[in-house]
């Protein structure tokens, strides 16, 4: 009994108002001292230009992303206009907007690049142990090498019939939807999620088999990205995520859906893939691979599975939505693309054949450019080397004049051929050793669906009360977000 009383007494002494005030004072002194160090000559980055408040503390970044709602990318752009090509944007990070330096920041092979902890702090739960969220280079290579072969161009050509069938299935379902307007992000998310889940687990989520397009993976992804900035600047919240399976239902329906997708839906599909033991899907083969046992735990593979589905659905669906808007709002673009594809059988399309059409190439790459993919920065740490920036005579050159204008002709040379030299300016899939693993799958989907869209859907499709501001990039939540109240690309089918 005396020990219990003693513990209560100690607890009471620790949590008196005076003690709490002292702890808060010590914390404030620590933060102030750290801020002073960050702007002092003793800090290695002190010589780089940028706002002193940004250099002093992460609070500056938090103001723009937390308080002003994902606006720090716009502030970084303003910094470059004032200070030049390299600016210090927080106590630990430099930002560069000279494209000639991109290959130094994101090298392809042979050079170590780690991910920055501040950026990864926005991810939680099983996602923390996915390949895309792995901080150190060595562990990332183990995890990434295990899945690389599933997304090679050769392998995607093998599963092209799956992509083709899913595209036709989506198209036929859209043509049957002659009632209420359709928000096109929904069918595209159903298509991309069903495709990547079928390939990953040998069984699709079945979104395209439902009565409408309302059920798709976007709901889970949106619930994740709405927490991005909060979790990044309050990383202690990541430690509460383990309670989410217990309390997710009390945090609202969207968070509950996110939790269920992470802790129930994806794990159940992985279990079925293991039981199925048939080759041809990613997780059956991963579970039978030579990966260390620790890398094949259900928790880690669930994070990998969720990450693959999210990456394999969201950005491709967004690009297709942009393509749809511009084909419907700019009849000359649609007419030129229709003329180019007029000899194609819409029911028997070939990715390799479609890649030969220059204007189709131009439309797809212009959509990737303007839809952005991932809009937030992707910081890297060059652990074993100093990166030397030598272009002191930097001049801003507009590679894409009038960047908000949809101009596929940017991607054609003087003879009307595809200008592949321009592809180096596309950052939609990232660059270097951590480039998006699903790039080949995304291009296969983009070519096949755009062709199906032109040949089967556009003649029956009309924009419904939609303007560019309904999809235009306004702020960051990992992915680009339109203005508040934006309604997306809505269409009617006749």
From TrEMBL:
Keywords: Heme, Iron, Metal-binding, Monooxygenase, Oxidoreductase. Heme binds at residue 436. PROSITE patterns: CYTOCHROME_P450. It comes from Anthostomella pinea. InterPro entries: Cyt_P450, Cyt_P450_CS, Cyt_P450_E_grp-I, Cyt_P450_sf, Cytochrome_P450_monoxygenase. GO terms for molecular function: heme binding; iron ion binding; monooxygenase activity; oxidoreductase activity, acting on paired donors, with incorporation or reduction of molecular oxygen. This is Uu.00g098740.m01.CDS01. Its cofactor is heme. Transmembrane segments: none annotated. Pfam families: p450 (PF00067). Belongs to the cytochrome P450 family.
């Amino acid at each position: 009994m005396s020990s219990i009383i003693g513990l209560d007494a100690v607890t009471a002494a620790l949590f008196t108002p005076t003690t709490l005030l002292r702890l808060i004072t010590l914390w404030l002194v620590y933060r102030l001292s750290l801020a002073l160090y960050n702007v002092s000559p003793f800090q290695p980055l002190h010589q780089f230009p940028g706002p002193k408040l940004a250099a002093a503390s992460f609070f500056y970044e938090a103001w723009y992303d937390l308080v002003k709602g994902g606006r720090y990318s716009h502030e970084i752009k303003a910094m470059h206009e004032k200070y030049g090509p390299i600016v210090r944007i927080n106590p630990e990070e430099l930002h560069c907007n000279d494209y000639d330096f991109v290959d130094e920041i994101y090298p392809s092979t042979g050079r170590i690049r780690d991910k920055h902890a501040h950026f990864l702090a926005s991810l939680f739960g099983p996602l923390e142990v996915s390949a895309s969220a792995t901080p150190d280079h060595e562990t990332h290579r183990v995890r990434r090498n295990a899945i690389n072969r599933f997304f090679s161009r050769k392998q995607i050509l093998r599963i092209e019939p799956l992509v083709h069938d899913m595209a036709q299935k989506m198209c036929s379902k859209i043509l049957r939807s002659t009632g209420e307007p359709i928000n096109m992000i929904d069918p595209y998310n159903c298509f991309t999620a069903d495709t990547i889940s079928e390939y990953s687990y040998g069984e699709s989520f079945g979104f395209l088999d439902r009565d409408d397009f309302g059920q798709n993976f976007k709901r889970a992804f949106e619930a994740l990205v709405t927490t991005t900035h909060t979790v990044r600047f309050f990383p202690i919240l990541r430690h509460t995520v383990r309670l989410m399976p217990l309390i997710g239902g009390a945090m609202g329906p969207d968070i509950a859906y996110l939790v269920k997708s992470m802790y129930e839906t994806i794990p159940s599909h992985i279990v079925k893939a293991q039981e199925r033991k048939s080759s041809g899907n990613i997780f059956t083969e991963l579970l039978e691979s030579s990966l260390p046992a620790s890398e094949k735990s259900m928790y880690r593979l669930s994070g990998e599975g969720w990450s693959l589905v999210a990456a394999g659905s969201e950005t491709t669906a967004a690009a297709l939505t942009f393509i749809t808007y511009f084909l419907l709002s700019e009849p000359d673009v649609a007419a030129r693309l229709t003329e180019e594809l007029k000899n194609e059988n819409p029911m028997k399309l070939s990715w390799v054949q479609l890649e030969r059409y220059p204007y189709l190439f131009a439309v797809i790459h212009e959509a990737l450019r303007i839809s952005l993919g991932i809009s937030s920065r992707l910081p890297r740490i060059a652990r074993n080397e100093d990166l030397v920036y030598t272009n002191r005579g930097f001049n801003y050159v507009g590679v894409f004049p009038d960047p908000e204008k949809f101009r596929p002709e940017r991607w054609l040379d003087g003879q009307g051929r595809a200008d592949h030299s321009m592809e180096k300016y596309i950052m939609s899939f990232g660059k270097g050793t951590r480039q998006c693993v699903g790039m080949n799958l995304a291009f296969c989907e983009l070519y096949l669906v755009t062709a199906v869209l032109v040949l089967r859907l556009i003649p029956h499709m009309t924009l419904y009360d939609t303007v560019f501001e309904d999809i235009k990039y306004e702020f960051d939540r990992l992915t680009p977000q339109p203005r508040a109240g934006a309604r997306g690309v809505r269409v009617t089918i006749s």
